[in-house]
Amino acid sequence: MDKAVIDERLFIRRGGWQRKWQTIYGVIFLSPWLIGFIVFKLVPILFSLYYSFTDFHLLHPDETQFIGLENYLNVIRDENAGFTIFFTIGLGMVSIPAQLLLSLFLAWLLTNTRTKGKMLMRTLFFIPAIIPGVAIFSIWLGFFNPSTGWINQLIMEPLGLPPVGSIYSESSYNMLITGMLLWSIGPSFIIMLGSMNSVPEELYEAARVDGAGPMMRFWGITVPMISPAILFSIVISLIGLFGGTLLLDPGNPFTGGVSIFDNYISNVMFQQFEMGYAAALAWIFFALMLLGTITLFKTSGRWVYYPENQEEEDF
């Protein structure tokens, strides 16, 4: 009996040491990412929060003073900031539903039709999402360049039409922003496609027996069943709306045409050199994203259907 007790204690002690070494190994392998996160993300975030309460100017860093909420109050008085905020919100109200409807349509088309080459079409629809932003900008610049653009040389000139103006004019720039947002529907499309393929076929068969048509099956079965995927797609589209357009910044003084909020932050930081005010704008930027995401999740209980939660409530 004593030997059995000793062996059991030795086994427990060895097991404890094994768990400790597993923890140590986990920390060792995680430490490069953790150090990189702290140095390159967490520290800059904390510094930007501090700078947002100062009048830090990149050309006069020695004259920095703590000014409290003055930068945030200046945002209320800044007409350009207000314009870019409302324009970005309006752009989101147009582009996000357009992204959602287009990805839904493409996913439904590949799910419910007998089109040949479905795998090739899925790949082609997703390729724009993995192309680097610099390459996308170069492609669009090649399209819309007023002197050497492909549209002017291949379409406008042969037809005798006036050439397309600069992409940094107000109308061209806004169309370009919308086009780039629609260009990036690949992730939403893949999410919708996977969700539609996971809907049980028995539900559609029961609906057909009851006489439901294609539209009734789509709105009554498909949309409710894929509503969690729709929520996730809206969230990633919202995040994509508040970023990714900085490559379109022409580097010129701010004008009404360059009206995306993150472009205005870039202009304040690198053209006006007002680091403190740019940091305050960036935190307002973050607050808008957070508010939009929280609102989506708070209201999702009214329109998002979770089958697993429903089963738990039934029991």
Characterise this structure.
This protein is an all-alpha fold. The protein folds into two domains: 2-51; 79-308, MetI-like (MetI-like fold). The protein has 14 helices and no strands. It has helices at residues 2-51, 70-77, 79-112, 118-130, 133-144, 150-156, 170-183, 186-197, 201-209, 214-225, 227-241, 261-270, 275-299, 307-314. α3 (79-112) runs parallel beside α8, α3 (79-112) runs antiparallel to α11 (227-241) and α11 (227-241) runs antiparallel to α13 (275-299). The radius of gyration is 27 Å and the shape is globular.
Q: Which CATH class of the largest domain? A: Mainly Alpha
Label the CATH architecture of the largest domain: Orthogonal Bundle
What's the β-strand tally?
Answer: 0
Q: Tell me the structural class.
A: mainly alpha
Q: How many helical elements?
A: 14
Query: Unreliable segments (pLDDT under 50, ≥5 consecutive)?
Result: 310-315
CATH topology of the largest domain: MetI-like fold
What number of domains? 2
Query: What is the name of the CATH superfamily of the largest domain?
Result: MetI-like
> Helical residue percent?
over 70%
Largest sheet: none
